[in-house]
Design goal:
- The protein is mostly helical and about 260 residues long.
- The protein is built from 10 helices and 5 strands.
- A 3-stranded mixed beta sheet has the order 4-3-5, covered by helices on one side.
- It has 2 domains: about 120 residues, no CATH class; about 100 residues, no CATH class.
Length: about 260
């Protein structure tokens, strides 16, 4: 089944200001954390039997700019649940009003958001990120090229080339240190409240400007030192250090253990 083109969705994203086109809805298409919230809506359905389907449309018209809206999930469900109230004419007027109120020039990052929206529409996987991709992450490796491959019931964005997540050994070691920190933090003597593992992921993102897998490989040593220091500062880390017990394996030790 065909889908809208990437340039079409880029244009749609820019023309609606990156927000849901439903009147009065402030919901962004892309959340502050980079999550794709919005959805691509076909004014005239893309499949036979769908709401407002027009058998006389050709495929180019069906997937074209004039037949598409960007909506939040709530309002996408709303218009499809009430096709009599939200006719083709009503939706075209909605589209025109949203564009008139919010039109913005295209930005470089719109290409990524457009690709992610298409992935969400078609259950695709974004692979081979040779151009280096990240969303709203100033400390992460940034985008250039996308290669899309269809998958069933799955949308996934793989770590970009040049990031820690794209290097199996270094990704494994950083994850080992994160898990080690969580283990030590949970086991700290005298802890009165449960430890929340999300804290370390949030701390890394705040410190390095990106999710840990998207941090540049050039900062691998810096990220490792950050995590090792966090481990040493835990209550259990301090206790074990006074007893002369090792707190974690070095990168070289980790590789020897995991390459056997």
């Amino acid at each position: 089944m065909s889908k809208p083109s990437l340039p079409t969705i880029k244009r749609l994203f820019a023309q609606t200001g990156g927000r849901c086109a439903f009147p009065g809805c402030p919901t962004p298409i892309v959340g502050k954390n980079g999550a794709i919230i919005g959805e691509i809506c076909h004014i005239k359905a893309r499949n036979p039997g769908g709401e407002r389907y027009d058998a006389h449309q050709n495929e180019a018209e069906r997937q074209g700019y004039d037949n598409l809206l960007l909506l939040c999930p709530t309002h996408h469900r709303t218009i499809d649940a009430q096709p009599e109230a939200f006719s083709v004419e009503v939706l075209l007027d909605m589209k025109a009003r949203a564009e008139a109120a919010s039109r913005e020039p295209e930005r470089p990052e719109d290409a990524f958001f457009a690709a992610a929206l298409l992935a969400k529409l078609g259950n695709t996987i974004i692979t081979e990120n040779k151009g280096n991709i990240a969303i709203n992450s100033p400390g992460a490796v940034q985008t250039g090229t996308l290669i899309l491959k269809t998958m069933s019931n799955k949308t996934k964005i793989l770590p970009p080339a040049g990031s820690i997540g794209a290097d199996g050994d270094k990704r494994g070691y950083v994850k080992y240190l994160i898990d080690r920190y969580i283990q030590f933090a949970k086991a700290g003597p005298g802890r009165s409240t449960p430890f929340k593992p999300a804290i370390i992921y949030t701390s890394i993102k705040r410190e390095f400007g990106a999710q840990w897998e998207l941090v540049s490989l050039t900062r691998f040593a810096e990220l490792c030192l950050y995590l090792e220091t966090r481990i040493r500062k835990t209550s259990l880390g301090k206790v074990n250090a006074t007893r002369g017990q090792p707190l974690f394996s070095s990168f070289e030790e980790y590789l020897r253990k995991h390459r056997k």
